[in-house]
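ugh finaly. both done.
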Amino acid sequence: MIHLHPQTVLLLDAIGEPVQLATTDHAFYLRRVATIPFVPPGRPEVGTLAAEACTDGTNCVILSRHGCSVVADSIDLAHKRALYLEEAARLTYRALALGRPLAPLPTDWLTPGATA
């Protein structure tokens, strides 16, 4: 697991907009992105809420107004997921800035149980 403070992810969280998975790479590597409500850093509830958010196969958890935690079997994969999360956030923000929110990406093509 790695913990980061990706700026565009945090901006979208602050304005109440979810990160949209815009590409097939986003869908394959991220699958689902969860957000937990704001809890001041250092409180035990942060870990509890983040762990609960990961029980359904979610591997990226946005800690509202703080940062994100990314889970993977290796640091390389966690880093790749973190990069794709920030990339998806940048694309989401740009689309919103253009007044053209991204349509949800179909994910029915993903193989159940397969993970990156």
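ok and the 2nd:
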Amino acid sequence: MGLSNSIYLNTSGPIAIAHRGASAEQPENTMAAFEAAVSLGYRYIETDVHLTRDGVLIAFHDDRLDRVTAEKGKVSQLNWSQVKQARVSGCEPIPQLIDILNAWPNLCVNIDPKSDRAVQALAETVKQCKAEDRVCIGSFSGARLNKIRKHFDGAVCTSMGPMEVLKLRLASLTIPGFSGLAKKSPAKCAQIPTHQWNIRLIDKPFIDKAHELGQKVHVWTINDRSEMNRLLDLNVDGIMSDDAALLKSVFEARNLW
């Protein structure tokens, strides 16, 4: 399977991505949230993964259970038998990634491995589910992204790591000597916020440079209607939002759904 088969790369027009599922409607990163997004008609969702102590790959953002469940403890120090007893927002169980990939075999899933331990298990799960053409893997860790790329020999879509984003940002500026910095990135998209450390990342020069280099630009996490419209006017390739219903309504109003 080659990268040319990636659904993430072979789409026309911008895509709407439900961040942690329809997390404004249902508890984040749960089957209920993903089902809510699918029911709205979403073809793209975003999730995060951690590995339990006994090697089970779960869809969960934090490294601890504390914020979104009544249970406490680090995921990496708990067995699956303990984690599966927890309830997100007091009502929804924490799913395994394999259950998400198997439940919706045509659903595209953006996945962020939140720990080094999760990388190998993520690669194995994607292969087991034959989901190489419908996942995009992103991370704040360039090292994790490089491991994924080596594991799949470049045959899975990955987004840019922090240094790759920096090079693209610099290449987009009209500063002598910077224009060639981003030419060799193995990533196929930049998935970034509008600002980082009070520095603007997303503007027309950035998007134009990314497109010149064959890169998609997906922006997270946008929950404001006017900002969604502004970004679409700039010609971004995708928007991630917690408010799946709002994002859908914006896409519908622009005949993009």
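summary for the 2nd one i guess: The first helix runs from residue 31 to 40.
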